[in-house]
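Sanity check

After download, print the first record. It should look like this:
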Amino acid sequence: MKDLLKNREQGSGNRDQSPRSQRNGVGYLAEEQPQILRLASLPQDDSRERMKRLSVAAGFAALLLVAGCRQDMQNQPKIIPQRGSEMFADHRGARPQVVNTVARGQLHEDSYFYTGVVQGANGYREERNEMPFPVTVEVLKRGEERFNIYCTPCHSRVGNGLGAIVDRGYKPAANLHDQVRTTEPLSHYFYVMTHGYGAMPDYSAQLTPEDRWAVAAYIRALQLSQAATAMDVPAGVQVKDLKDLAPKDRQEWAQPWALPSTAVQAYPPVSKEGYPGMAPANPADPAIKIPQSKQ
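Expected structure tokens:
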């Protein structure tokens, strides 16, 4: 143990007496400075130039990346309504329909079902007095429901043209029971509901083709109900007069229709064509003129 302590003292003494014991200000021997300090003492020109080159290269790469993203985001492979497109040579976003193709749900093979007209022998459109499918009780009930929803505000529930809007100052709608309307083909009502007529807008958005035909069938049934005679009643069925069916305090229900004081007539009525409020429809021979170009 004593020998070990003696050797340690000798070792420390040797370090103290060594000429390398002259230390620098930071506590390291000048001859034994770390490598990192030697590098730090070298000139910095090369390092700065290298960093500058790296910065330029990184910036250029970032510009390329941003330019590529901008191109992809700007010219996306999609069509925006009412806007041009760079995807096509004519720069039109709205593309024309491809020839000899039919969109899904638009294969209208039965043109009469969807238009209500056929091409006549003279090349003009013609309306027909027939339904494109059989009329059942369910069809008439559906037609009555749609008629009461969309038609009664103008035409009233009985179709005399005295709907609620007439009581509020609007022009009377067509009387579906006058001589002109009762002689119209059945598809005429479908065509009017599809395209509108005069002041009446079209109802193609509210009524599907099936519903338009159902309403047309109900209009015909409504016309028959308002113009029926005793001869139309099956044998053995008792018929009561409307005056007997109407309540005592509502006898005006059995009277001829009268226009309210707020009704507006844009043009004076033509007696031979009938007008809303007539009961019964009045004239026997309505004047119908065909343009010279269609004769």
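If your output differs, re-run the checksum step. Summary of this record's structure: The first strand starts at residue 117 and ends at 119.
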